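Hello Y.,

Per our agreement to keep a running log of every chain we model this quarter, I'm adding this entry. I've kept the format consistent with earlier entries: sequence first, then predicted structure.
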Amino acid sequence: MKTTNIMIVGVGGQGSLLASKLLGRLLVDEGCDVKVSEVHGMSQRGGSVVTYVRFGEKVYSPVITEGEADYIVSFEKLEAARWASCLAKGGQIIVNTQEIAPMPVIIGNAEYPSEILGELTAKGVRVDAVDALSMAMEAGSAKAVNIVLMARLAKHFEIPFEKWVAAIEKTVAPKFIALNRRAFEIGYHA
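Predicted structure for the entry above:
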């Protein structure tokens, strides 16, 4: 089994750490050797958060370097652009179309780039852009963006839908299982 490298990138508070925990649990349950590493940055202040998830028969390091990521799951468009250089040739970016302005944009020193996804596509990057925020709201909470994005990632694996749902049930608090299951179903079937 070849080692697969996944980066989950976003802004602090979007739920990327829960997404990596869910993914790690699922892959361990599938019998994979899994390594997860979290880089928080200024996550409590809306800064960039990056999680590396590597799995395969035997994985020795949790770190993914430039040109090694088979998948990048981005919770926000600018984060997709920031980490695109880590994508392997033929890799896939799954990106939420939501825009979260960084501090230079908020204070008026910069403008949010308008053509991020078009520029990535023009460079030959395979982009699966999805309005995960709207789907999460349809499920019942904006906080379910992470689960919608995991559902999009699930479409790229041969792990049955039911096993993803079982991992959700083992990972999230019981009072949030129904919401997260709805978010996963909506994202998976979109």
